[in-house]
């Protein structure tokens, strides 16, 4: 290395790796094939010459002082790349990497306390960097390093200016926290200048180190000996050297910048062994490090192609609790050359193998990992086939047939400088965070193939928990600092909550499961830096919590829609939908999720590699839904055929992508295509359409929809951007000369400018302010007809809103899952959070909202699969507006509830509640409305109030209209007087609006008014809805469910259901309705003839649902429940009186009664001759069935029962407490000792609600309803069916 200061202008990052002594285990035999092969014979146990336990930090970075700010940034503009790199390493190893600030430029660095800029480099006319001056701002940049990072500051030695070195040291000590400033280093590679010898360097070093320590009051030791280029200069065997150890913390070895640096270091290691041993004996095992073996990193500032190589090292060393390392091959070489050819070595020493043994109490019988390197040079420019080598490691495996895991560090060639093509385990780290699909291989037989210029990590263990077992008594002994079982000794000082938390008497030496999970997510334990801390398991305990495999379904209740939940059924989805969902979720979690979390944080656009992967599987094309654009494409690797792909596949995609919890990235990775490309596909000219579609579907180009303006906002018709027709084209547009609108496809180019807009979600969405200034657009780029642009723009709104609703439901479901998991693991007041009724209430509301939204969106999707595009526009515009409004309203309610459940964690961007905070912050993007004078801004798909208004206006267009009435005979008796009818706005006019502003339509059904109708208005073909045929359907929008609405579809109901519904409705309106209105008014029980008519049609039996009780009966064929139609009589009390008691009182008899009793009562009740009720509600117990006080005592031949409850029934199904504290259910006929008294309620007494008392009633034993699980089970058995019926009727 030259001493010319001109060389100091090079921008260099150096990596110092903590490597320790490596040893050879024996000779290796090779064959003579061009395909190299080596057998590693063993033995598998740890060699005696292996290294000591490795330092957990594993490595550090050396960054030139002059360029430190370039790599780290400053407080105004921090370097996100560097931040991501270092944070990622910290996560992987559990300990931040050390950062050395120094190198060549350290020996020309000075301090200026009054300097305004943080760092200033003086470069002469020749372009050579002469010196660097740092000011107070420099240390603010240092503080940008990840929390916990240790800093080594390199001091200027070359000028022999002690005051200058002291000034820099003092500024560092004052500016940095003592925990951050680890060491000071005097000089850099001093054997390359001023003719330093071991003796004179030691003299100067010792003097400066002691004086600086004394002047600044430093606690020894605080100094590091500088790295040298050749033989280390520190004279441990020199007289008086030990007196200088007072300030010495560590010596850094070798700073080789030569191509053969690794080979030279191997030679030096042998020569330095006595010195290394001496240093470690005096200063500890981590006091001697190999520095900067990997130096002069390729690539410009901001690009770090060798980072993947460093991750290889970190992954190799960092995933175990503690490691010891031994060199398996090649052996130590006295001259740095190859192994002697006498041993048959044809590799020229370019195959290297390292074995790693976990340092654990159970011993070192087998290694846990291998690092295999093929150092043969292969460049991407070479045309020859890439050489390969095979390592046979079977001698080190417990079972050679068992598969091992292989991860590769690879690139197209050794000369590659681009970071995005150098990959570790399939992922690149151009941004500092993982991008691309994580890949690893399973290899059996122990033969591992490694390409030239490639390295692999072989993981030999199966990843299960440590095998050593501890009893609870043994654990209790380990409750002191430095001796923690789930060994936290190394981590204790870094614990975010402080050391005292770990030493708390409820944690240290205890089963800390509950304490841990009340504060942490389970995923924490899966991170490499924490998983390696586990050293054993508790005797007699089994693992209870298991991580969800990549792509697998969640086992948390309601975390998946019912069609993906085991045990449930669904008519919408077929096998190819299920295969597609499984494959796509795996893709999302392996490829999209890592990139999404990184980009959501740094705000950059989604990585190009992600778009490339999506394009390979034609996912970009599939995001546009089914259609001609999919023909001839292989979808998702052939899992689904183009002709099979439907809107349910698209729904799956929208809902799986929403699971990323990265709202900005969600839009940035496909939102623009989703809304910007359909106008081109549907209205573009063929050549333009084909060109743009292929470019976008390939992931090479991107498209967006530009219609929102500052002036117009959501008012598309109010756009001000203008387009003027000129020869062969237009000057840009939307508003035309004629006042109409035109839509143009404009390519990025001259006159087009974009500027990022910062919103409350991530700039990864790419939201931008776009200006078009005198842009010429070829006429063939016009989409749709001139002045017909509004239709082009509006054409995709339904599809866009539907897609947003799909994603909204899925995002809500993720939050439901997060809340359920948190509420079950979080401990408050000594109990799980779920023990709090208010929390359970919030969870219930969240679940109900997401399930109803999912069912609605699936119903709409089913309509879309059966409707043409035109039919969708006619029938679904309002439906989709309503469903999006509902989904986004419930989303905001769920977001608020989730924050309440998570508490303070729900508003933090990191840790347990990060998903909740992100959701709560970004959910308004899908919806807004004015609430309590607070407007939530929203631009995506339409505000809730606007969508609701749209849906209602769509419905009003379909409202049926007028009929003609002759009121001459009625005028004299009109309640409002004759003058009202003769008013000029009514008589002889269309009085529809005036009439309905005063009256309900039901008035016209009454016979005295219906006979006044004399005809229809000529030319008015709209059906009149006020005088329907009995049993007919309503023409009012949304008055009927979709399956009964013309033009809609349902997978549930068949023709038989429709015929049954028509017959039941006619029966209700002809027979039940008149009696209902009369009885609701007078409060009497339903008329006997109604029960007789219902019994004749077996409607009473059908009200109990399908079952054996229907066998042999003549039914109105079908399964639709009559209560759906009975609810239409608008007589709530009468409805209950007509059959409510039967529906809840008879099932216990049918299911648990003895045959004779069952058959007798069923025949009498179902034939309408007698009535039954369920009597379990008491004043003392209420809904608490187990708390009833009514008692039954066993006597000879039966039971005696007294006190409380009933109806006007003939039979009472009654729950009673027994002498032994249990519950028995009895069927009690009306008779002696049974008294009933009506209870007045807010609805009609036609319901028969009554207070029933039983006083010394003797009940035959055969009237007991028995179950193996007791009387409580008898009572509870029908609750689900009862609740289902109540919900059905309420709708």
From TrEMBL:
Write out the similarity annotation.
Belongs to the acyl-CoA dehydrogenase family.
**Which SUPFAM superfamilies does UniProt cross-reference here?**
Acyl-CoA dehydrogenase C-terminal domain-like, Acyl-CoA dehydrogenase NM domain-like, Cytochrome b5-like heme/steroid binding domain
Q: Which organism is it from?
A: Tricholomella constricta
This chain's protein is named: Cytochrome b5 heme-binding domain-containing protein
Looking at the record, the residues that make up the Cytochrome b5 heme-binding domain are 467-539, 964-1018
**Required co-factor?**
FAD
Q: GO terms for biological process?
A: fatty acid beta-oxidation using acyl-CoA dehydrogenase
Question: What are the recorded GO MF terms, alphabetically?
Answer: acyl-CoA dehydrogenase activity; flavin adenine dinucleotide binding
- Any signal peptide, and if so, which residues? none
Q: Which UniProt keywords apply?
A: FAD, Flavoprotein, Oxidoreductase
Q: Which InterPro entries match?
A: Acyl-CoA_dehydrogenase, Acyl-CoA_DH_CS, Acyl-CoA_Oxase/DH_mid-dom, Acyl-CoA_Oxase/DH_mid-dom_sf, AcylCo_DH-like_C, AcylCo_DH/oxidase_C, AcylCoA_DH/ox_N, AcylCoA_DH/ox_N_sf
Q: Identify the Pfam families for this entry.
A: Acyl-CoA_dh_1 (PF00441), Acyl-CoA_dh_M (PF02770), Acyl-CoA_dh_N (PF02771), Cyt-b5 (PF00173), Glyco_hydro_79C (PF16862)
Q: Which GO terms describe its cellular component?
A: cytoplasm
């Amino acid at each position: 290395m030259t001493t010319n200061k001109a060389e100091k202008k090079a921008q260099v990052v150096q990596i110092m790796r903590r490597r320790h002594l490596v040893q050879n285990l024996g000779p290796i035999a090779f064959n003579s094939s061009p395909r190299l092969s080596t057998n590693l014979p063993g033995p598998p146990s740890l060699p005696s010459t292996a290294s000591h336990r490795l330092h957990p930090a594993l490595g550090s970075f050396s960054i030139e002082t002059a360029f430190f700010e370039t790599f780290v940034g400053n407080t105004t503009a921090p370097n996100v790349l560097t931040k991501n790199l270092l944070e990622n390493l910290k996560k992987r190893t559990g300990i931040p990497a050390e950062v050395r600030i120094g190198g060549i430029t350290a020996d020309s660095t000075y301090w200026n306390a009054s300097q305004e800029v943080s760092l200033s480099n003086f470069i002469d006319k020749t372009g050579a960097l002469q010196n660097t001056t740092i000011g107070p701002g420099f240390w603010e940049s240092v503080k940008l390093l990840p929390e916990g990072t240790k800093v080594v500051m390199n001091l200027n030695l070359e000028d022999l200016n002690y005051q200058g070195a002291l000034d820099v040291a003092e500024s560092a000590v004052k500016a940095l926290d003592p925990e951050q400033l680890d060491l000071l280093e005097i000089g850099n590679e001093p054997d390359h200048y001023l003719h330093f010898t071991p003796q004179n360097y030691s003299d100067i070093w010792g003097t400066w180190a002691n004086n600086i320590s004394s002047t600044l009051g430093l606690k020894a030791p605080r100094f590091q000996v500088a790295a040298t280029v050749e033989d280390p200069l520190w004279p441990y065997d020199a007289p008086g050297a030990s007196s200088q150890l007072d300030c010495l913390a560590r010596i850094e070895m070798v700073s080789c910048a030569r191509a053969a640096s690794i080979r030279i270091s191997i030679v030096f290691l042998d020569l330095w062994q006595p010195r290394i041993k001496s240093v470690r004996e005096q200063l500890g095992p981590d006091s001697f490090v190999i520095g900067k073996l990997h130096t002069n990193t390729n690539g410009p500032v901001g690009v770090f192609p060798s980072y993947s190589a460093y991750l290889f090292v970190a992954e190799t060393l960092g995933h175990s609790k503690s490691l010891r390392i031994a060199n398996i091959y090649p052996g130590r070489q006295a001259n740095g050359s190859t192994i002697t050819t006498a041993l048959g070595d044809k590799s020229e020493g370019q195959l290297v193998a390292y074995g790693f043994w976990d340092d654990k109490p159970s011993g070192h019988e087998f290694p846990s990992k291998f690092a295999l390197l093929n150092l043969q040079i292969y460049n991407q420019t070479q045309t020859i086939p890439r050489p390969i080598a095979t390592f046979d490691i079977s001698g080190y495996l417990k079972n050679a047939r068992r598969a091992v895991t292989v991860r590769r560090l690879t690139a197209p060639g050794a000369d590659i400088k681009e970071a995005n093509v150098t990959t570790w385990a399939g992922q690149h780290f151009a941004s500092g965070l993982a991008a691309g699909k994580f890949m690893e291989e399973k290899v059996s037989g122990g033969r591992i193939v490694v390409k030239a210029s490639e390295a692999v990590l072989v993981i030999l263990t199966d990843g299960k928990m440590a095998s050593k077992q501890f009893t609870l008594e043994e654990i209790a002994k380990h409750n002191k600092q430095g001796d923690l079982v789930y060994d936290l000794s190394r981590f204790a000082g870094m614990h975010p909550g402080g050391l005292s938390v770990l030493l708390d008497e409820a944690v240290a030496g205890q089963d800390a499961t509950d304490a841990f999970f009340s504060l942490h997510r389970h995923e924490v334990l899966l991170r490499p830096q924490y998983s390696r801390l586990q050293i054993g398991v508790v005797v007699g305990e089994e693992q209870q919590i298991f991580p969800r495999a990549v792509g697998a379904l969640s086992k948390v209740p309601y975390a998946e829609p019912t069609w993906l939940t085991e045990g449930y059924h669904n008519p919408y989805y077929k096998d190819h939908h299920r295969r597609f969902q499984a494959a796509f979720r795996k893709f999302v979690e392996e490829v999209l999720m890592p990139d999404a979390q990184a980009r959501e944080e740094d705000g950059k656009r989604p990585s190009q590699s992600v778009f490339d992967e999506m394009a390979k599987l034609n996912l970009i094309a599939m995001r546009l839904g089914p259609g001609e654009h999919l023909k001839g494409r292989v979808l998702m690797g052939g899992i689904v055929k183009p002709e099979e792909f439907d809107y349910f596949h698209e729904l799956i995609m929208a809902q799986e992508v929403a699971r990323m919890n990265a709202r900005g990235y969600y839009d940035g990775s496909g939102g623009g295509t989703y809304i910007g490309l359909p106008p081109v596909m549907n209205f573009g000219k063929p050549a333009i359409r084909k060109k743009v579609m292929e470019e976008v579907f390939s992931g090479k180009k991107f498209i967006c929809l530009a219609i929102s303006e500052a002036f117009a906002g959501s008012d598309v018709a109010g756009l001000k951007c203008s387009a003027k027709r000129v020869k062969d084209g237009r000057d840009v547009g939307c508003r035309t000369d004629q006042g109409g609108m035109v839509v143009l496809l404009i390519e990025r180019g001259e006159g087009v400018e974009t500027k990022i807009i910062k919103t409350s979600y991530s700039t990864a969405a790419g939201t931008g302010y776009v200006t078009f200034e005198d842009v010429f657009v070829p006429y063939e780029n016009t989409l749709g007809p001139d002045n017909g642009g509004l239709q082009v723009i509006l054409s995709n709104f339904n599809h866009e809103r539907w897609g947003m609703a799909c994603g909204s439901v899925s995002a809500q479901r993720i939050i439901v899952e997060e809340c359920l998991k948190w509420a079950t693991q979080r401990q408050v007041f000594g109990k799980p959070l779920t023990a709090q009724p208010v929390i359970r209430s919030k969870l219930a509301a969240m679940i109900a909202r997401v399930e109803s939204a999912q069912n609605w969106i699936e119903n709409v999707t089913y309509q879309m699969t059966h409707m043409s595009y035109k039919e969708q526009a006619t029938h679904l515009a309002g439906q989709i507006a309503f469903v999006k409004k509902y989904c986004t309203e419930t989303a905001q309610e769920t977001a608020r509830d989730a924050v309440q459940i998570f508490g303070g964690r729900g508003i933090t961007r990191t840790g347990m509640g990060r998903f909740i905070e992100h959701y709560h912050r970004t959910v308004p993007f899908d919806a807004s409305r004015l609430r309590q004078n607070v407007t939530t801004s929203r631009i995506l798909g339409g505000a809730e109030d606007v969508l609701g208004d749209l849906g209602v206006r769509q419905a009003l267009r379909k409202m049926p209209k007028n009929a003609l009435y002759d009121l001459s005979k009625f005028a004299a008796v009109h309640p409002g007087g004759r003058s009202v009818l003769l008013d000029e706005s009514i008589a002889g006019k269309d009085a529809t609006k005036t009439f309905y502003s005063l009256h309900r339509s039901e008035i016209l059904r009454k016979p005295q008014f219906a006979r006044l109708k004399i005809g229809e208005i000529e030319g008015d073909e709209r059906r009149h809805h006020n005088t329907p045929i009995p049993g007919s359907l309503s023409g009012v929008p949304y008055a009927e469910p979709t399956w009964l609405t013309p033009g809609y579809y349902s997978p549930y109901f068949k023709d038989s259901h429709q015929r049954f519904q028509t017959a039941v409705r006619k029966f209700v309106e002809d027979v039940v309705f008149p009696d209902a209105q009369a009885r609701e008014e007078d409060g009497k029980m339903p008329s006997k003839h109604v029960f007789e008519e219902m019994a004749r049609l077996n409607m009473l039996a059908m009200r109990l649902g399908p079952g054996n009780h229907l066998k042999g009966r003549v039914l109105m064929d079908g399964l639709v429940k009559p209560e759906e139609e009975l609810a239409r009589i608008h007589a709530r009390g009468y409805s209950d009186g007509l059959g409510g008691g039967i529906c809840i009182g008879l099932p216990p008899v049918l299911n648990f009664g003895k045959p004779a009793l069952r058959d007798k009562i069923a025949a009498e009740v179902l034939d309408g001759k007698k009535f039954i009720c369920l009597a379990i509600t008491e004043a003392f117990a209420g809904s608490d069935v187990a708390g009833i006080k009514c008692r039954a005592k066993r006597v000879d031949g039966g039971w005696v029962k007294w006190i409380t409850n009933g109806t006007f029934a003939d039979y009472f199904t009654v729950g009673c407490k027994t002498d032994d504290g249990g519950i028995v259910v009895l069927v009690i006929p009306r008779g002696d000792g049974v008294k009933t008294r009506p209870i007045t309620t807010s609805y009609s007494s036609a319901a028969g609600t009554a207070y029933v008392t039983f006083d010394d009633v003797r009940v035959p034993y055969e009237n007991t309803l028995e179950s193996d699980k007791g009387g409580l089970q008898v009572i509870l058995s029908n609750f689900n069916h009862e609740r289902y019926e109540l919900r059905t009727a309420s709708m």
